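$ ./design --mode recover --in tokens.txt
reading tokens...
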């Protein structure tokens, strides 16, 4: 029996389970580190025009500092994105996801803001809850899921996440109104834990799985997971991606996912797709600054968008977040070695209309 929140339309639920490209929306700032509304709107327009199936706003790529008392940009950036989606008058399903953070009270407050702005779901971060037990985090999830449909988030420890047990994800999958899980531990064993836990749950058909494993995007999307559950074979796929990596070169990401989907029927996967996985992972290493434990991941995204004209610069709210030494040169290499992965021509064709007031 389905426990998905009826506020999600059948069309949106179907699209979510078919697989969507959901970019994690960056924050556009000017040289004074103030919100650049024109560029912020242009980014949303870019993602819509690229064919993305949604956006995630108020997440890591949007910078957690937007919640600081002296900044208070959480509501404004969610509102700008929602306005642009409304203005686009889309005739296809498009999911608006809001990042939700902090202790239960904060997460509920943010869920209220997101719901009031028409967001469809909340990506519930498990980060920053040092000292919380798995039981406490599950209770927090249950409470938030009563307010807004929840997308779970398995975040890698190197950027503030933690390792969760299989039993945690097994219980997580049973929570009513959990509609999806973003799997981003950058770890094969932990990825399998989540998929197997969902397959073991009676809610397996209600939960869509999305990759956040930037080190294995293409392979995640090509793989059929198969487990034995109560004597029966159960299969599950990671159907789409909710990714900071897909905040850049988004048009190509949409084309990539559409290229992958036909292989779900069991037809042979060409060797070229495995090579593509390595190419995409290599670009992610440059954009996300894997060589420096992801210190330059947000400026790296900004640098690509700056080169395309979508952002004025790479500024972050935290002045210490800058490109790492050699990172710009690595991005140069991505353009040189993998020209087929960028969407610069697409952006150039439409940039002025996206930047229009």
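writing sequence...
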């Amino acid at each position: 029996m389905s426990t998905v929140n009826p506020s999600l339309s059948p069309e949106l639920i179907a699209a979510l389970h078919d697989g969507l490209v959901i970019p994690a929306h960056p924050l556009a700032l000017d040289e004074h580190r103030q919100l650049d509304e024109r560029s912020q709107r242009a980014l949303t327009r870019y993602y819509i025009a690229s064919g993305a199936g949604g956006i995630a706003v108020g997440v890591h790529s949007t910078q957690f500092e937007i919640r600081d008392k002296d900044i208070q940009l959480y509501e404004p950036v969610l509102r700008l994105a929602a306005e642009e989606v409304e203005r686009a008058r889309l005739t296809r399903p498009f999911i608006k996801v809001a990042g939700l953070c902090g202790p239960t009270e904060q997460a509920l407050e943010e869920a209220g803001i997101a719901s009031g702005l028409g967001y469809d779901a909340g990506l519930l971060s498990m980060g920053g809850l040092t000292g919380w037990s798995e039981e406490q985090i599950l209770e927090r999830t249950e409470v938030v899921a009563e307010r807004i449909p929840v997308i779970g988030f398995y975040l890698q420890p190197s950027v503030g996440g933690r390792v969760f047990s299989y039993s945690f994800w097994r219980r997580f999958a049973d929570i009513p109104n959990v509609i999806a899980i973003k799997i981003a531990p950058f770890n094969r064993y932990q990825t399998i834990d989540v998929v197997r836990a969902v397959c073991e749950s009676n809610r397996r058909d209600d939960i869509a799985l999305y990759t956040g494993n930037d080190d294995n995007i293409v392979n995640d999307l090509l793989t059929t997971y198969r487990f034995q559950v109560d004597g029966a074979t159960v299969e599950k796929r990671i159907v789409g991606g909710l990714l900071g990596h897909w905040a850049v070169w988004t048009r190509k990401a949409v084309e990539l996912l559409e290229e992958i989907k036909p292989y779900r029927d069991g037809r042979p996967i060409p060797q070229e797709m495995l090579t593509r996985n390595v190419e995409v992972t290599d670009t992610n290493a440059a954009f996300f600054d894997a060589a420096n434990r992801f210190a330059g991941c947000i400026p790296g995204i900004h640098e690509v968008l700056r080169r395309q004209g979508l952002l004025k610069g790479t500024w972050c709210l935290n002045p210490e977040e800058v490109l790492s030494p050699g990172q710009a040169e690595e991005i140069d290499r991505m353009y040189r070695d993998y020209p087929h992965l960028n969407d610069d021509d697409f952006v150039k064709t439409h940039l002025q209309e996206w930047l229009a007031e």
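exit 0
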